[in-house]
Automatic annotation (TrEMBL):
Alphabetized UniProt keyword annotations: Cytoplasm, Histidine metabolism, Lyase, NAD
EC number: 4.2.1.49
Name of the gene this protein is made from: hutU
Pathway in which this enzyme or protein is active: Amino-acid degradation; L-histidine degradation into L-glutamate; N-formimidoyl-L-glutamate from L-histidine: step 2/3
Occurrences of domain Urocanase N-terminal (ranges): 84-210
Required cofactor names: NAD(+)
Keyword Cytoplasm among UniProt keywords: yes
One of the Pfam families matching this protein, by short name: Urocanase_C
GO molecular function annotations of the record: urocanate hydratase activity
Protein name according to UniProt: Urocanate hydratase
Length: 661
């Protein structure tokens, strides 16, 4: 069968032969045993719903074995034989170009070069899933290939509920992931519902089909590292950045450190992902001996090298050994997946990678104790360095939150609302006040043609638009503009593409609209193919996350989620091609609500109208909320937006004299 025929087949009437378990692939760890005997029967019934009754006798023992062996029913047998990657949009079967673009993005999320655990349909973060099983993937792709521009596909946590009559202006796909009743948002609730096959953790751009590989987080991390050095009034040259995590998005850290121009040490316990990052060129060297690491870092600092080094081992060893050796750390952070601490997101010291994977499945209580003990030790080592002058920031992965729950010494001795922890979130001191409050966030696009030359043309268009805008930009956003112009000029030489021909830069509403309009005009002239617009959920408006995206909201509303819900509803009727809303994000199940979108530009006047309407709302919704929280940068930005758009009228806050209070 051709690729197009396999897509249109969906779930085959004749079952394919069982697949060999490929040990060379980076697989998800076994999930904990959590279902009762009756619940296991229910999980099997739920999985078998996708198949004709004639196949049930054959599939029951196979699915039962998967559930017992891996803690989930992935339906490996149904994994397609074709290569998984983002093909040119013209390669996909279908009646809707918008639907074809979504198929392209789904396959990009599952590309072996992009996905963390591709056979388990997990894109990043240890549990950020596109689908729960391969039947869902096959059925979704078939629906997308069949749908017209007058239908909408509804997705329930990876399950395609079906195609519904709609209209051309409606989203082609509406996605929800993990939207459970709030009282059932504890980690074990997710484990049970995911094992039953009724809910999934979509992370941010994994389950919303908008991940572009680690490039997205490279850009955000580069901005963070550059501004981290600015905060300590030191040049990155000859400076040292120490962190951990090379899997999924965290693998972007060493690349960002290199772009910023410092020495980066990033610890990782998984040898497979470390090898992948080295092969991709995201790290320069791998060192397994802690003493050799000390010698190498001392040499690099003395010579002011720009180098990224992976330490294959536990990061606690690095913090403790560098303290003992008196190696000064300028910037410190952590980007292990601590939103998922008990299922492979963070590994305890004193155990091998294999021992830890075994323990988390067979003795989860012992594993939890080992993780929490390691977190206490981790925090203690960081505290020694910060006492010497290290600038440590929480990188939004729930490190401080989980450390506090473990009893680590991370709490502020004199806490204030929003400043309960000893160390700040990078959003509180860098991204929030410098970027999000002014409307700057992760605008991204994908060239649907798959042509590198199209990406180069879009880079040039975006650079031209930003340079023109900077000439009249107010002083308050000159630094943001300059950083992004520098980024886009170096994008090609830094070889950031992994998977689809995609790019990211930080832009405000004005920048996003002008760049998108320029793309649409170029498409209309036949200079480039279709463009798929999107963004990370980690943005100005899309996410309500009290310990990350909205951690610099100090009016008491940071635990509310009105903004994220309003954002996705507003995007849906202003022209988005697809919209998504998730529970979980990058900080943990029950800790955040986050939404995203995708939008296809086809060169038409309709696309021009939709992009202007939707992008303006998508950004200014968040600026409005931030201004109401009395954030000065946001007040400046929303006043500027009201001046540019007479139909925008936003309620502004009045300030109270502290002496009166």
């Amino acid at each position: 069968m051709t690729f197009q025929e396999q897509i249109l087949e969906g779930i085959p009437s004749v079952l394919p032969q069982p697949k060999t378990y490929e040990t060379a692939i980076n697989h998800a760890p076994k999930r904990k045993e959590i279902l009762s005997a009756e619940e296991k029967k229910l999980a099997l019934k739920n999985a078998l719903r996708y198949f004709d009754a004639k196949h049930h006798a054959e599939l029951i023992p196979e699915f039962k074995e998967e559930l017992e062996k891996y803690g989930r029913i992935y339906m490996y047998r149904l994994r397609p034989d074709y290569r998984m990657y983002a093909r040119p949009i013209s390669d996909y079967p279908g009646k809707s170009e918008q639907a074809k673009a979504i198929m392209l993005m789904i396959q990009n999320n599952l590309d072996y070069a992009v996905a963390q655990h591709p056979h388990e349909l997990i894109t990043y973060g240890g549990n950020g899933a596109v689908f729960q099983n391969w039947a869902q993937y096959r059925l979704t792709m078939k629906y997308l290939a069949e749908m017209t521009d007058e239908q909408t596909l509804v997705m329930y946590s990876g399950h395609p509920m079906g195609l519904f009559p709609s209209h051309k202006e409606a989203p082609r796909v509406v996605v929800t992931n993990g939207m459970v009743i709030p009282n059932y948002s504890k980690p074990d609730d997710w484990e049970k519902m995911n094992a039953l096959g009724v809910s999934q953790y979509g992370q941010m751009t994994a389950g919303s089909y908008m991940y572009i590989g680690p490039q997205g987080i490279v850009h955000g991390t580069t901005i963070t590292v550059l501004n981290g050095f600015r905060k300590i009034k030191k040049s990155p040259t000859g400076g040292l950045f120490v962190t951990s995590g090379l899997g999924g998005m965290s693998g972007a850290q060493p690349k960002a450190g290199t772009i910023a121009g410092c020495v980066t040490v990033c610890a990782e316990v998984n040898p497979k992902i470390t090898k992948i990052r080295h092969e991709q060129g995201w790290i320069h060297e791998i060192i397994e001996d802690i003493n050799k690491l000390v010698d190498r870092v001392q040499t690099a600092l003395a010579n002011k090298e720009v180098v990224s080094i992976a330490y294959l081992g536990n990061v606690v060893d690095v913090w403790e050994k560098f303290d003992e050796a008196n190696i000064p750390i300028d910037l410190g952070s952590d980007q292990t997946s601590l939103h998922n601490p008990w299922a492979g997101g963070y590994y305890p010291i004193g155990y091998t990678f294999e021992e830890s994977n075994e323990m988390m499945a067979t003795d989860p209580e012992k594993f939890k104790e080992a993780v929490q003990s390691t977190l206490r030790r981790h925090a203690a080592a960081i505290n020694k360095h910060t006492a010497k002058g290290t600038y440590f920031f929480d990188y939004g992965n729930a490190f401080l939150l989980e450390s506090s729950r473990a009893g680590a010494n991370v709490m502020n001795e004199l806490p204030t609302l929003g400043r309960e922890f000893k160390y700040q979130s990078y959003v509180q001191d860098i991204m929030g006040p410098m970027c999000f409050d002014y409307g700057f966030g992760p605008f991204r696009w994908v060239c649907a043609s798959g042509k590198p030359e199209d990406l180069a043309k879009t880079d040039a268009i975006a650079c031209r638009v930003l340079e023109e805008m900077m000439q009249s930009a107010p002083e308050e956003i000159q630094q943001q503009m300059a950083d992004n112009i520098q980024w886009i000029k170096g994008a090609q030489e830094n070889k950031l593409v992994v998977g689809s021909q995609a790019r990211i830069l930080y832009a405000d509403a004005e920048g996003r609209i002008k760049i998108a309009q320029a793309f649409n005009e170029a498409i209309a002239k036949g200079e480039i193919g279709y463009i798929i617009l999107g963004r990370d959920h980690h943005d100005v408006s899309g996410t309500d996350s009290p310990y990350r995206e909205t951690s610099n909201i100090y009016d008491g509303s940071r635990f509310t989620a009105d903004m994220a819900i309003h954002n996705v509803i507003g995007d849906s009727f202003r022209g988005a091609t697809w919209v998504s809303i998730h529970n979980g994000g990058g900080v943990g199940w029950g800790e955040v609500i986050n939404g995203g979108f995708g939008m296809v530009l086809d060169g038409t006047k309709e696309a021009s109208r939709r992009l202007e309407s939707m992008l303006f709302w998508d950004v200014n919704n968040g600026i409005s909320r931030r201004s109401w929280a009395k954030n000065e940068g946001a007040i400046f930005a929303i006043k500027r937006a009201m001046e540019s758009q007479p139909l925008l009228k936003v309620t502004l806050p009045n300030f109270v004299d502290e002496n009166l209070l």
